[in-house]
Amino acid sequence: xxxxxxxxxxxxxxxxxxxxxxxxxxxxxxxxxxxxxxxxxxxxxxxxxxxxxxxxxxxxxxxxxxxxxxxxxxxxxxxxxxxxxxxxxxxxxxxxxxxxxxxxxxxxxxxxxxxxxxxxxxxxxxxxxxxxxxxxxxxxxxxxxxxxxxxxxxxxxxxxxxxxxxxxxxxxxxxxxxxxxxxxxxxxxxxxxxxxxxxxxxxxxxxxxxxxxxxxxxxxxxxxxxxxxxxxxxxxxxxxxxxxxxxxxxxxxxxx
Length: 256
Prior knowledge:
Blueprint: H1 14-28, H2 40-47, H3 51-63, E1 67-70, E2 76-79, H4 87-94, H5 99-123, H6 126-140, H7 145-161, H8 166-179, H9 190-208, H10 212-222, H11 224-237, H12 248-253
């Protein structure tokens, strides 16, 4: 599939592209107010760019008022605002310029995650069920969207591991990175938490009873939550009169 533009960044305009991605991640809720962004080293590794490019991007975000750079022990880049004057152009650069590729990615991810859930329901053992139940309880008890996001990632990783197929685990991780613009974090707000919770419980129950068909359907619908968040953000910055391509998610939902 054509997702090269969603992969590692290239040297030209790299600092600007990193700034666009991080501003979009903040606007999506992948990082909440007060959250500390990953370190320069971690961001450079995630996006496969130089630390100098990351540093330039963080300076841009600081100048636009989206993050605050704190020095010294316990310092770093902290989210100061979810939307700023430069956010609209950043989101356009990160999303709209390659929206057709995102449409294909959304479809691919729903298909793959449905397969992963189906396989987990067929293969999960007692240890897998226990791990899923333990992480689900932690998700339910999350005190902040950031905590919920961490447990969400852990839960779906546990489901992928329940397939007992390392290639499926790695594919799950790669798709998470691509749909989250390379920063490996799903958007998370309390509204998304409330929507995700029932899906998580239904998925865990389907896997526990070995209902492969139900697990596949639930997972496919569940992973459209991020897709819908990206669609809403794209609609916020799309010029009047310009419509997105038809939603594969809408067509998919009508089949269930």
